[in-house]
Amino acid sequence: MTRGAPVLEVAPLARRHLREVLAIERGAYPSPWTERIFHDELAQARAGARTYLAGLVDDGVVGYAGVLYAGDDAHVTNVAVHADWRGRGVATELLLELAWIARDRGCAAMSLEVRHTNMGAQALYRRFGFVPAGTRARYYENRDDAIVMWMSDLQGDEVAGRLTAIEAARP
Q: How many CB atoms are located within 10 Å of the residue 146 CB?
């Protein structure tokens, strides 16, 4: 009997996921968030000020992403994928779900920062319609610059069409 391809499920991030999230966080970032930060962020999510999602395969966390809400803007706080799962569409699925949620909440735009050397992430964000809007010098570890990117007109037909096209292109 052959087993089918693994199925990615996107679900709300929960405290039970934090052990795996912290392992991914430590592997993805030189200055990872602490467990305390994640607990605080999940409390903000329960209050409606944030959304955090987990990418799950066979109930194991393979990635996570979050967004905070400020006025009518949504700001992506993080997108991280386990090294073994990078390049397999996990970040795309997480960002797609966050964009639809922000749109459903009535947000007008989304923003994020991305390390200036992270070309893969920049390409992903451009695919979603994010465009560079500036830089934050020495933002990461007081060493690397961040590119600030925005996706405006989140409520517009063009963004809805782009999100729908990304969905349609899934394997």
A: 18
Residue-wise pLDDT tens digits, 34-48: 999 999 999 999 999
Q: Which of 63, 57, 54 is nearest to 24 (CA)?
A: 63
Q: Which pairs with CB-CB distance under 8 Å and at least 24 residues apart come from 116-123?
A: 116/144, 116/145, 116/146, 116/147, 117/144, 120/86, 120/87, 121/79, 121/91, 122/147, 122/149
Tell me whether residue 113 is one of the annotated catalytic residues: yes
| Whole-number Å distance between alpha carbons of 1 and 102 | 42
What CA–CA distance (Å, rounded) separates 19 from 127?
A: 31
Q: How many Cβ atoms sit within 10 Å of the Cβ of residue 22?
A: 16
For 5-28, write each residue's pLDDT tens digit.
Answer: 789 999 999 999 999 999 999 999
pTM (two decimals): 0.94
Q: State the residue for tokens 């390390």.
A: 115
**C-alpha span between 61 and 76 (Å, rounded):** 19
- 29 catalytic per annotation: no
- 113, 139, 140, 141: the catalytic one is 113
CB 146 within 8 A of CB 113: yes
